[in-house]
Design brief:
CATH topology of the largest domain in chain A: Dehydroquinate synthase-like, alpha domain
Structural class of chain A: alpha/beta
CATH superfamily of the largest domain in chain A: Dehydroquinate synthase-like - alpha domain
Oligomer: homodimer
Number of strands of chain A: 11
Order of helices and strands of chain A: EEHEHEHEHEHEEEHHHHHHHEEH
Radius of gyration of chain A: 20 Å
Distance between the termini of chain A: 65 Å
CATH class of the largest domain in chain A: Mainly Alpha
Helix content of chain A: 40-55%
């Protein structure tokens, strides 16, 4: 029995409901949401839980989570994976799934992901395929995971051919986004996660983008603005996921900036020391707007406004800022062609007619992309 | 381009429709069904297909399948896995999924499983998790796969803790059960597959059981009775799957005989030289009826009639016939306790009130099981 030592919540968490029929679930958001989640977890009616975490996160937040699970009446076991994207592979998946079997986790039991996107994707995928599907709970500990990867049911691992190419749609039974867990995050990681927040404004909510311009500093500082930004993001993502759970249409909007971002991540060989996902997304958002402007779809001042906000936060906003270099325009295009969003050989981009007015364009000519990349690359060379 | 050299069908295949909403699909059954499937496959609208097969099956049937796929306008690639249950592991899954990525199989393309249950389970699982789900087509080449594993969407691999513990529900887009492909099967494999056919009569169709008693020899010989038996089996399985796709209730009836069978397979360490799955099911069906009789649920003469039919076909029907021995009653109970159908520590059995009258009993006392096994084991010791 673990001693109970959880912080009392500052206030009741915000609840975002994701109405997916028999796969519906709630997201609890706010400072102290973890300690406030005991009853919710108990109500799931499981007997056992296995925490999947990593060696960085578990020492910080493991005890608090174990206490909540024990208070909810669950038998608790724990496994950790090495921190970092490298753990999203078959070997770790096999190790985690065997540990879940050894812990006798059954269909109604819980796999609890405590960590960032890597842990959530890997643990969620292990839950999806264990006994053809056991329930899982996300306790995201990075800003990126709180506003993006822990909502929507995408789980998976990487392949030599690309990121997230192996996986499953598996919705969580509950998400607990305790914004106080972000207080100990390194500044760089917070900033990177913020890129996904501003994305929701750019997709279809101009007012939220303007709110971001005014309040970004307070989101970083951890005031109620942080809770608000997380809640708006989760609500926005949930709305899209409910419309298109399996990404056959509208859900693709969530990939705004990501075709560029994935290509850049591939080019730096997923080396987080050079570029973490959120930083690649920051550059990708700016490029998506600039590309839209170049195609005559979007006013140039909107693209410039996006660049200014991103750059003003200390996030990279151009190809020139890829540490170690971005290769060549051709290398970026090649990397794009390997992305899983390629359909029948054509390139799909999320483009925009303005801030908050994004749309899916599934037939973009490779020549147009290359011409834009060449221009963006030329600017990157110091005069 | 592969030369077209497919046999013309003897007659139009029987079509069994599996009405699972947006996951609905057809099963084409009969002699020549493969050659007759070109239009159906073309109608799926894929661009590419990758055949997953094994080194035994591909030389026999690979060319015919390639010809059909090419005629349907598809680009075709092929990968083989080593024959046998040992291929249902993470290493082969990784190898197959990487090959699918290298062949640029996209979401609307086809993974085509050509083989028995092992190939179908592995290829189907690879299809389920590739890009979070690409379509797949089953071309089962064993009787067992035609009447059981290729219908219903269960896919997966084995774990050290047990068979099929890792997997996904992933319905095929089409199943082509060409009964002529069974002509070259070894006698033992045909017999083993037959156990799953007779199971459908025992579950809820007494008239079909009586038909089996009268027609088993003709099913083996390959006449129209074989097509009929496969069609009745697929229809029966489809009806159950439609009612309960994710095995939360009625679908468990398909496990008649399987709690015993899985335990025996575990005890022989899944050594097919000793006991293949269908043989274990044959023993399991007889034991399920005898256990039901011992519990006073089922007339003893029904249990004896089941035993007589199974034994009369040359299938094993008692613990004494497990080659190399069955261990002990306690070992069998232990092996059962590891089965994935254990819920909250209780044993679930499919029992029967008579031939064609099976039901799910999810609260069977371990003591009753042990007492029955001891009796069945005592008989097994030569006097």
């Amino acid at each position: 029995m673990i001693p109970v030592d959880v912080h009392s919540p500052a206030s009741s968490p915000t609840v975002v409901h994701v109405p997916l029929g028999e796969r519906a679930y709630d997201i609890l958001i706010g400072r102290g949401a973890l300690a406030a989640s005991t009853e919710r977890i108990a109500a799931l009616g499981a007997r056992s839980a296995m925490i999947v975490s990593d060696g960085h996160v578990l020492p910080r937040h493991g005890e608090a989570l174990e206490a909540v699970l024990a208070q909810a009446g669950l038998r608790v076991a724990t496994i950790t994976v090495p921190p970092g994207e490298g753990s999203k592979n078959y070997a770790e998946l096999e190790r985690v799934s065997n540990a879940l079997l050894d812990a006798k986790i059954e269909r109604r039991d819980l796999v609890v992901a405590l960590g960032g996107g890597v842990v959530g994707d890997l643990a969620g995928f292990a839950a999806a395929i264990l006994r053809r599907g056991v329930r899982f709970v996300q306790v995201p500990t990075s800003l990126l995971a709180q506003v993006d990867s822990s909502v929507g049911g995408k789980t998976g691992i990487n392949a030599p051919a690309g990121k997230n190419l192996i996986g499953a749609f598996h919705q969580p039974a509950l998400v607990v986004a305790d914004t106080a867990l972000l207080d100990t995050l390194p500044e760089r990681e917070l900033r990177a996660g913020y890129a996904e927040i501003v994305k929701y404004g750019l997709i279809d909510d101009r007012a939220f983008f303007e709110w971001c311009e005014a309040n970004a500093a307070r989101v970083f500082a951890g005031g109620p603005e942080r809770d608000h930004a997380v809640a708006v993001s989760c609500r926005a993502k949930a709305a899209v996921v409910v419309e298109d759970e399996r990404e056959e249409g509208r859900r693709q909007l969530l990939n705004l900036g990501h075709t560029f971002a994935h290509a850049l991540e591939r080019i730096v060989a997923y080396d987080g020391a050079r570029l973490v996902h959120g930083e690649a997304v920051a550059i990708g958002l700016v490029l998506a707007y600039r590309f839209s402007a170049q195609l005559g779809l979007c006013p140039g001042q909107d693209a410039e406004r996006v660049r200014r906000h991103v750059a003003g936060l200390g996030l990279p906003s151009s190809l020139a800022e890829v540490p170690g270099g971005f290769g060549s325009p051709e290398a970026i295009l090649d990397a794009m062609a390997q992305d899983k969003k390629v359909k029948a050989g054509r390139l799909t981009f999320i483009l925009a007619r303005g801030i908050g007015e994004s749309f899916v364009q599934d037939d973009v000519a490779a020549d147009d992309v290359l011409a834009f990349l060449r221009q963006a690359a030329a600017e990157a060379v110091p005069a």
